Amino acid sequence: MTATTNSTTSSTDYIRSLDTNDPNDVDAILEVTNTDRDAAISVVKNNADTIFTWDYEKGARPRLAKLYEKSKHSMWDGEIDLDWSTNVELDQLAADMAMLGEVQFRPIHRAAEEPGSPLKNWGDKEFHEFSMQSLVWQLSQFLHGEQGALVATAKIVETVPWIDAKYYASTQVMDEARHVEVFAKYLDTKIEDSYQVNPHLQHLLDDVINDSRWDMTYLGMQIMIEGLALAAFGFLHSMTTEPLLKKLLRYVMSDEARHVAFGVLSLQEVYQHMSLAEIQERQEFAFEAALRMRDRFLQQEVWHRMGVENVKPIIQAQLNASDEEKEFQRLLFSKIVPNCRKLGLLDAGDGWLRTKFEEIGVIQFEHLESTDEEYADFALAEGDA
Ligand SMILES: [Fe+2]
Ligand SMILES: [Fe+2]
């Protein structure tokens, strides 16, 4: 039976107001839950106008036009180019994940040693299972984020007023279909397990679709969600020894770099003509997205599945992690921050976003190359994996 959830969540419903200035309120983080975890579909209201343009002049925006031409020649086929006969060893994947999380999971191990800890009876077996579940959860959230990109970019085809951007976005829609397809197939046939969408991610995706302003779709998806995904895929690609996943991630990354570049090139033009008040709204939207993405990495669902009811001390320990332990979380912002800088979002309005990025410890990435300058480096070469 197909169940429908009418999701009416919007940024105004989000319980943790930016004004409270406490992004580490654990109760507020944990209160964000899915309304119906078992629904087969959910419905989000799209409030944006659909725009026709009668100006068909191709190449009026040369850098977007170039991106479109590149995209047409960069299509791969997940059924043909990936070797689905590869035997995937789950234990090997879990070992990869344990290594990936060695520093990142230290606060959890510390929390386990506290008196009365909900993890007090955990041994190697439970922590090994936790590593496996973390990977399944992570790949599942990638899958759901990819569907978000599919839907959001279809929205951009409808709402952006420039023909070069409509052309490019249409190729991205096809890219995202492939990404959804390969992550879904990997989870279904190799892992044989998956997780529901994380509520923090779902709320962010809902906001991206819900907003009436077409540039917000780009900011939420191409700059924030895809910027984070590009960094996360790169990290997992460099760490995993599983050949099918490694190649899958490499192929997806070759597309994602173009997608993020599409966001930077489009928004650069739009933001030049915006008032300070409008730019300040974009700064707040970007930071709220950043917090939601951080909160999703607290992976409440994994604790739930592992039978841990009282997750508060564990989440608290993760939020209180040392700078070194937070390094992975910070690396996830290595694409977002330079791209926000390129768009002028860091320093507008007395540098509000710069201050916020300083507070969450990610400002050090600001001078890395922005993705519109480096996307060609991600292109696939012969035999690339
Ligand atoms: Fe994607
Ligand atoms: Fe993408």
Q: What is the gist of this entry?
A:
The protein has 385 residues and is mainly alpha-helical. Helix content is 61%, strand content 2%.
Description:
By secondary structure, the protein is mostly helical. The protein has a single domain (60-378), classed as Ribonucleotide Reductase, subunit A, CATH 1.10.620.20. Helices cover 61% and strands 2% of the residues. It has 17 helices and two strands. It has helices at residues 26-31, 62-72, 78-81, 90-100, 106-112, 124-159, 163-191, 199-210, 214-239, 243-272, 276-296, 300-305, 312-319, 327-331, 336-342, 348-359, 371-374; strands at residues 4-7, 41-44. A two-stranded parallel sheet has the order 1-2. Helix 2 (62-72) packs parallel to helix 7 (163-191), helix 8 runs antiparallel to helix 11 and helix 11 packs parallel to helix 16. The longest helix has 36 residues, at 124-159. One fe (ii) ion is lined by residues 146, 149, 176, 179, 252, 256.
